[in-house]
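Lab meeting minutes (informal)
Scribe: AK
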Amino acid sequence: MTTQSQLWVVHSEAPRATTGWTGTDCSMPMCAQGFYDPFCTDLPQAPGGEGCYRCANGGNCTAPDVCQCAEGWTGYDCKTPICTFLADPLTRIQLNTVYEDNIIAFENDPCAVEAIYDKHGWKGLKYTRGNCTMPNICTCLCKAPYSRKACHINGQYCDGPWQDPLIIFRNVLENRGPMWTFGSTDCALGYEGNMNDLDQFVTCHMNIYEPSSIERSSVQIVLAVVIVAVIFSMFYYFFAARIRRRILLAKIERRRSKRSSEDSLLAANAGTFKQT
């Protein structure tokens, strides 16, 4: 009781293989998108101890070309991961929306978040904010990754994620809204989100903040200003001290000249009195 599978008509990537029922009693379903496991003994679909057909990622073949997927996986071949996330109060603020429909859409699609932010053009193509690559694990889109090799060879992609070193004095994100964050991985521009206990992203709803050149170099600018101020202060101190010294010497010289003039006048008057 076998025939050629027609899965490829609906799913072009599906293999063109045989499907139907097999086994000594024709009780074993066949899945063209799955694989035969000769050691399968733990399923109702393998009553004769002859093995069974399984699907990817722990799925089981329960009927011809029908896969019952394990938790966290979906699709006709059980190769599509499922990502969900329960929005906590902080995440709701970061999403910057008051519509509960948007919150529900985000919880069902926390990686792409396409229902809220749609797709964005980048390098001539359309991208979402990220992809669900494993059950409840997102790979967020990184538009400008740090690359030690490219930086060394081409001088490109040299900037990693930016953490404001002057955060205790200012908040550059304050006027940008709650949906912006500083990067935490090797990505300098793109998207990030909440993380699990293994530091893997479970959402991609946040924008990585890209600082201006002044903000990125703010510490160097402050240091340069301080150094210039110190040098100027030292120059001013020594220059002012020299000016004061010259003024003091000039005063001493004037007093000396005045005293010499007075002594000369007294000496001339004393000679006149003697002659008289």
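Next up, CB showed the second protein from the same session:
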Amino acid sequence: MASVIRAALVRTALVACVPLALPLVVLSAQEAGFELVPVATGVFAAIRTEPSSNVVLGNSLVIVNDADVVVVDAGGTPAAARELIAAIRRVTPKPVSHVVSTHWHDDHVMGNQAFRDAWPSVEFVAHPATRDAMTTTAVANREQFVKGLPEILGYVRGQIAAGKGLDGQPADSAELRSLRADVALGEAYLAQVPTFRVTLPTIAVERRFTLRRGARVIEISWFGPGNTEGDLVVHLPAEGVVATGDLVVQPTPFFFNSHIGGWLGALDSVRALRPRVIVPGHGPVLRETAYLDRLSLALAAVRDQTAALAARGLTWEQGRDSVDLASHRRAFAGADRVRNAAWQNYFAGPAVRAGFADAAKR
């Protein structure tokens, strides 16, 4: 049953100034499930604070300009987006003019509708592949997830009551906290599904697009298919701030139908921007590129080992157990049970399968 639950959860990636005003904003944001972290003058990372690892909401970036606000990733539900909007309005009365969607996963785009409700003239920026996925793959994934989620949540509640994890083994307090957060987010998601409206991009970025908002320069780039087909990276060159979407996820990466070679290239392109601050799709703000280096090493290890095994004629079924990622698992997850489960189920397992599939195409 545990494997069924994890497989179901994998199918859909869910469910994202004025200094004197900052303490009030941070306190209110934390109560809403995120912390508003200042990363440059007028630039804030909205970092989710839930301890969940299976049902998630994505981070956002808020850029307050001379006359308007640009947001990167609207959040995973209308309610989450409304909480972010409330925090923005406590920072500034300026309207949100643009929302950039880094990719198509629900936990980053299903809040779009709340921004359209709040500011009817807002523009939504995304890669064409993201727009296409929002009307096809995302719809099918969401229907499947909504259908199976009640049973999944029932099972998880039972495991929590028994003091066990998804693997049936006794769970420590950190794992139980994570599972309780999964349940709370899952219940909130289901409650809002009847109100969902898919709000599509209005501006397509195929390679590069620059927003000039007063004195602020915002560069939006597509570095090729990586974590998804249409990952956009948002760069504030003057401030050295980069928002990566799910190209970078902490503490362990997500691999959902991703592209190993393209992802490696995209990470190289992000490093070439020489960022001083990286706002990942999930997890805390990064202020160095060491995590990107670690992720590149893990992706390269999957690529190289699966290619070598495939060259010997082995299929995924025959060779998957020979792929050795133990050192990378330790680097990402250590001894933490929750992180180890996330590493195996949301990165290592699907990445190895994709590596064999890529090798078979060569």
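CB comment: The CA atoms of residues 203 and 296 lie 31 Å apart.
No objections, moving on.
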